[in-house]
Amino acid sequence: MSRVLHPGGPRFPDFSGGAVTFTGPRPPAVCDPTQPSRRNGVLMAVTNPTSFRPVRLALDLAAIGWHVFPLSPGNKRPLANCLDCQDNPHCADDDYAACLCLPDGQWCHGVRAATTDPDRITTWWRRAPNAVPAVAAGPSGLVLIDLDTHSDQPPGNPAHDLLPGIPLVDNQVPGGFDSVRNGIDAMHLLARIRGGPRPWPSGPDHQPVSVHTPSGGRHLWYRAPDGHLHQALSALGWQIDIKAGWSYGIAPGATTNSGTYTIHGGTPGAPGHMPDWLLDEVHRVAGPKPAPAPPAVIPAAPGQGNAAGYVRTVLDRGTAELASLTDGRKAALSALAYKVGGLLTWAGLTPTDVEDHLIHAGLASGLPDRQARRIVHRALTNGLTRPLPAPRDRRTA
């Protein structure tokens, strides 16, 4: 995959309100170690909202292994890519590996830029001093359970939609279905159904970093379990979201235009593990799905049996490698599809003969269906336009 270099260094919009373009050398990264930020192991910036400084909070969290990156204080979205990335189609967020901004220390591509590097963090907040720190769940070894209190209408079919996958009857719900008014109520109901503790959460071993959000919701940061969870958002119940992998949440202790995310329990340096009943539910909803059945055997053109077998070997090895990865799966699938595409002409095969096998490899690794199909189609097409020579000692008659 080609790497995109921005001549003269990335150019950034001015986040102080003007229209300044950053070019040339970047400001020096300065982290002042003389400023005390911790006392008795407790993060002062986190626990004392009146002293909130975004850069201080970001540095404090990074020091305990929480990977952070900047958000806009208004819309709570990642800061915009640099102007060069915005103008370059090769720097799309789903193609971030082709861009040099990340290894160069920029904040482009949102959560993918998350880091614990104090110099990089300091440089970012020099450019955008009011940016809100956000935390990337997966790289930080965390899972965020996000309980909303939005004024949405309750589900039309609460017996099936309050807790998807768990059929309910009205007498299982104290006060009836109408008593479940938000995600906090739905979480208490889930705990009751699954035999969890009440009031919930409780117990020192399972105490999350519990955060009250400005809207009245709750953020519950737990230590991530072993094993792969989906990167995308997953719904545990009505107004209950699971954020893992490359999903993110606003940092505990941060202040946005809406208010402060205040810690009410737990310690950021030692978040608890999920209790067994909750861990089972998270794995049920967000855990790895069973691998789809492999497609049919690749057909061999007349006189090309050995060639088709070679392509199948390439696919099998690539599929096994993908299944072993926890990161870099999109790039690995793209490389595999590109290589297979380059072998098609030699093997006397068509894209239709191998496309299902490649998509299966992506799905089995945990990639979403739509994403796997997009990667395979693009890389397979590119590989087909650049045929590879016949592998040594594999030529057929």
UniProtKB/TrEMBL annotation:
The DNA primase/polymerase bifunctional N-terminal domain, residue ranges: 58-278
Family matches, as Pfam families: Prim-Pol
Top-level taxonomic group: Bacteria
SUPFAM superfamilies referenced in this protein's UniProt entry, alphabetically: Prim-pol domain (SSF56747)
Protein name as catalogued: DNA primase/polymerase bifunctional N-terminal domain-containing protein
Protein's organism: Actinomadura harenae
